[in-house]
Design a protein that fits this description.
There is one protein chain. This protein has a 6-stranded antiparallel β-sheet with strand order 4-3-6-1-2-5. Strands 12, 13, 14, 15, 16 and 17 form a 6-stranded mixed β-sheet that branches. By secondary structure, the chain is of the alpha/beta class. It starts with 7 loop residues before the first helix and ends with a strand. Helix 3 links the parallel strand 7 and strand 8. It binds flavin-adenine dinucleotide and FE2/S2 (inorganic) cluster (FES).
Length: about 325
């Protein structure tokens, strides 16, 4: 009663936000530039942090201009880092709300929300003898987590970036090469053009025998999945996508957010999560690509289209939709 309307825990948060029992948080302790548009953020997680497996990602909630936004980032630090801190490495994308904030404006001392790490883009318990890492741009981050954590006897990496100076972790990669822990092909797309996946035959002649972890833009991963399937080794390819592959867009419609009392027009290609956030509706979210279910919301009326499959879901009592991969398919009412 004494502390109403705040709870005693709100006061404890002021004194000891990372204590055991508090919602899991982290404190940004440093931000180190990596390239012109990427930076590594050093985070001290609170006491409830359970630790990660190399290659996994963590969802973080960051306040940007007074709005709490959640995004997923791969953990780039090794699992046995002695000081208990973790790192994520973020590439600022043009108009990207969270990535630009973290790379250009985040300050040491800032508290962020954290989730426990998750994801199955990890090495198996029994280390494979021969590995290929196929990465592009910021897709190098989960693989860097693996390279820093686990030594593989025969590891090859093909990494694509526009120019040498855009290669995140370039010095560290070259140190691994000098120590004979990695063989590396840098593919500079500004001069070499986009990587044609068929070129792997020259770059890594035994690619089909290698257990492969691939992370990068949809074009590269789609081509890799096709290539590995054509050569009858799809089970050797493990991929991580940072964005959903949107295959089908429809007509859109008027979207009502009934709890907030807002109605806006939406096209048939933009996820309802983005539509809601643009309209100032408080929308829960996580990975923003259909894997974490952090955005599920009841559909009260109308229909939505799954942007990955084109499948239509119509409102029925109890129907939940993932707003990050659903777009309006005609007028609809979302319970937010
Ligand atoms: C499992 C997982 C792991 C991830 N790990 C990392 C990581 O280690 N490092 C990292 O930098 N990012 C990573 N991401 C991507 C990250 O979660 C965000 O999507 C990214 O930082 C963009 O967020 P934003 O708020 O800046 O952009 P938004 O404000 O959400 O979007 C701005 C514009 O950019 C487009 N956009 C959104 N995401 C991307 C993208 N990834 N590439 C190109 N355009 C995009 C949007 O469609 C929109 O037009 C990961 C994503 C997932 C799902
Ligand atoms: S935000 Fe992760 S499934 Fe929608």
């Amino acid at each position: 009663m004494v502390t109403t309307p705040l709870l005693p825990s709100d006061y404890l948060d002021l004194v000891s936000p990372l204590r055991t029992g508090a919602d899991l948080r982290g404190r940004i302790e440093a931000v180190h530039p990596e390239t012109g548009d990427a930076a590594t953020v050093v985070i001290r997680p609170g006491r409830g942090w359970r630790g990660h497996t190399a290659g996994q990602y963590v969802r973080i909630g960051v306040d940007v201009d007074g709005v709490r936004l959640w995004r997923a980032y791969s953990v780039t630090s090794p699992t046995d880092r002695q000081d208990g801190r973790i790192t994520i490495t973020v590439k600022a994308i043009p108009d990207g709300k969270v990535s630009t904030h973290l790379v250009r404006r985040a300050k040491p001392g800032t508290l962020i929300q954290l989730d426990q790490p998750t994801g199955d883009f990890v090495l198996p318990q029994a280390k494979p003898a021969k590995v290929l890492y196929l990465t592009a741009g910021s897709g190098i981050t989960p693989v860097m987590g693996m390279l820093r954590d686990t030594e593989i006897d025969d590891a090859v990496m093909v990494h694509c970036a526009p120019q040498p100076q855009d290669v995140i972790f370039r010095n560290e990669l070259h140190d691994l090469v000098a120590d004979k822990k990695l063989r590396l092909t840098e593919w500079h797309t500004d001069t070499d053009g986009m990587l044609d996946i068929a070129r792997l035959d020259e770059l890594v002649p035994d690619w089909a025998e290698r257990e492969t972890w691939a992370c990068g833009p949809a074009g590269l991963l789609d081509a890799a999945e096709e290539h590995w399937t054509e050569h009858a080794v799809p089970e050797r390819l493990h991929t991580e996508r940072f964005r959903p592959s949107i295959v089908v867009a429809g007509d859109g419609g008027e979207v009502t957010f009934s709890a907030t009392g807002k109605t806006v027009d939406a096209d048939g290609a933009t996820p309802l999560l983005d539509i809601g956030e643009e309209a100032g509706v408080l929308m829960p979210s996580g990975c923003r690509m259909g894997i974490c279910f952090g955005c599920v919301t009841p559909l009260r009326a109308g229909a939505v289209r799954d942007l990955r499959t084109g499948e239509i879901t119509e409102a029925e009592p109890g129907v939940l939709i993932q707003t990050c991969v659903s777009a309006a398919a005609g007028p609809c009412d979302i319970e937010r």
